[in-house]
């Protein structure tokens, strides 16, 4: 059955499509992501009745393991990482019967053949109807090989000719490491897949608060009507993490922060904040508007790069009162490393709505706290009424907190009670946790579910990805060729290098204190 | 009412506060916060004083209070954190706020800014109440001051008033936040009284012809206040700088200090006279007498029991009926706290500091 078929018993008012029977195959299933995110998500979907009743999950990996061993490992992982703990024993027992382990190397043809047999058996036993989700949770270098093998062994169906069953591929980031490699990967995938079969995952898009951005903007005319350069002074997007790179030294030495966080997650946030209203809430209508935003960003002038984008690397410092190492002292990191763990930039979107409004983005490791948020800073009130205050009034600021403590707050000025008129900023605060009580679903729950129902709204389309690489590749090339002279340039536990402040303060603005 | 979780892991600060709140909410308390208030004190004698002040502040303005007790003994080596929820408002628990207490030894002082930054509540003002002389080497202040909307110093901790004034002037030039100090805020009532009395062309003309000003203050030291003379010096500095008088000399005669200024109308001698009183708080101004070259006489007398100033104005020809002006209560009143947190420090504060920075106060303000 395809997703376009009429389903008379599906209740429109629930506005939630029901996932169709399918098997999900996870490649690289012994990696961290599977235990930390994918299985907790699958278990919670199962618990809440969001998985199709006819469902199986096959873990495809190189290590030797039995079904039982793998199931036991996943039970531990779910007990540790699930948002709802402890795991319900009975539920887990019935769920785990649908989990299978398949050992194979990614390049072994036999492994794909035996996978095909296994999947066929599962279709027969569990009624999964030949539908497949292939989750590529492998190193990016394996993406081309795995997709090629899947096609070769007829595990991926032709999108245009096969209509009674479907196959979809979820690809983890990073999608390429620059524009050329992303283009090369895309060309390769296009040999075997249709764009509609590719689900480029960016877990930020699965977060409740990110999804709420569209609802918040387009269902509240009071905000949408002032969401433009007439009223907005600047927009600040911050993704800060207090953790360092941990054991991922090797990965970081190759990637760096711009690739790991900015090029994907932050660009997604930026495009949702800045996009025009879509013509509908269908995937392509939304993605069409998002891509226009990224394509409208003024390219960085390579000759004056440092005036618009700055990089940083953390040195030793303190987190939670304890001393922590600098980046160059981390395991598997070059002691003279040139890799950035912090970036801050000023962007301009050259379109009608945002002309002249700077977008300040900053992201970093080993900053004082973990926090992701978008702050819309509005223009000042005309000052003449309040000159007697002797100081500039605080700007109204609308803050959308993506994580943690998800919510929305609005800062406004208020008279302090009394006979005179001193003014103080106060804030109205909406907290998801306090208001709705229940813990919101994890991003991966929503995204896996969406893939199963064939809704790719919350996945990145190729033109978005390419537009983002087009913007940042010149920066990456410049940074690779010109070593940073002052690294490390910020202490762990601080808000980044001084240059980040200069970037904002030169125009009389400042970063929001978080 | 206070609900406390003592000595906790630093990483657990927010989760412990949330845990305390869950129990508070069951009792119907609302978590409130108007601003972030960071208080630092490194001298034992001022800790209790600032703690009392913090509680007074919380009663009127619920805020996130981060109280840092530094220990400047070189060998001390500890870092303890506790959290509590504290009731605000008068006598009920319906509104309460967060308090984070940090006790830190000298060797770990450098960690404190890193510890404080993650716990500031965004979008609300950050006020620093700093119980340490800013002219001394400081591990914490330089890291935190750039986040502060207002930096309030405790000038009772100043080791040298001249150097203190110079330092504050430099900070005012540099800082994006506002700077003032506790003693200046406490002088608010007296400044108000002066501006009310000297508000006509005639009375200002009398002041311009001042010959001698005699300021009496409560010089009793009580283990908390070491520099009871500072408010008197501030009053002197404020009057002189507002009147554009030029400093000539300073002399100590016994326990009386005399500062001589000049104006177009002649010299003005301002005397600071210490007097020990048990009825009033150390450092309070007890009275001011002004005599002029035009034979006018102004007497301002504090009536402590009623917290007011009684003013007598006379001349060779006439004697006015006394005027009474209430003094704001620094312990319970809104006015003092509003002065501390909300009113912008006016230019007159800067002008006063400029004048004080020209004068060597050794002998008047003993260390």
Keywords:
heterodimer; A: 514 residues; alpha/beta; 8-stranded mixed sheet; 6-stranded parallel sheet; 20% strand; globular; B: 367 residues; 9-stranded mixed sheet; 11 helices; 29% helix
How does this model look, in words?
The complex is a heterodimer of chains A (514) and B (367). Chain A is α/β, with parallel strands linked by helices and 514 residues long. Chain A contains 16 helices and 18 strands. Chain A is globular and about 80 Å long. Chain A starts with 21 loop residues before the first strand and ends in a 9-residue tail after the last helix. Chain B is of the alpha/beta class and 367 residues long. Chain B has 11 helices and 17 strands. In chain B, the strands form 2 sheets. In chain B, strands 1, 2, 3, 4, 5, 6, 7, 8 and 9 form a 9-stranded mixed beta sheet that branches. An 8-stranded mixed beta sheet of chain B has the order 11-12-13-10-14-15-16-17. In chain B, strand 16 (308-315) and strand 17 (323-326) form a beta hairpin. In chain B, helix 5 packs across helix 11 (347-356) and helix 9 (230-242) packs across helix 11 (347-356). The two termini of chain B are 38 Å apart. Classes of the chains: A alpha/beta (514), B alpha/beta (367).
In round numbers, the mean pLDDT of chain B is 87
Topology, number of strands of chain B: 17
Coarse morphology of chain B: elongated
Total helical elements of chain A: 16
In helices, the fraction of residues of chain A equals 25-40%
The number of helical segments of chain B is: 11
Largest sheet of chain A: 8 strands, mixed
DSSP strand content of chain A: 15-25%
User: What is the CA-CA span between the terminal residues of chain B?
Assistant: 38 Å
- Which chain pair shows the most residues in contact? A-B, 35 and 30 residues
What is the averaged pLDDT score of chain A? 90
Q: What's the gyration radius of chain B in Å? A: 22 Å
The chain-level structural class of chain B is: alpha/beta
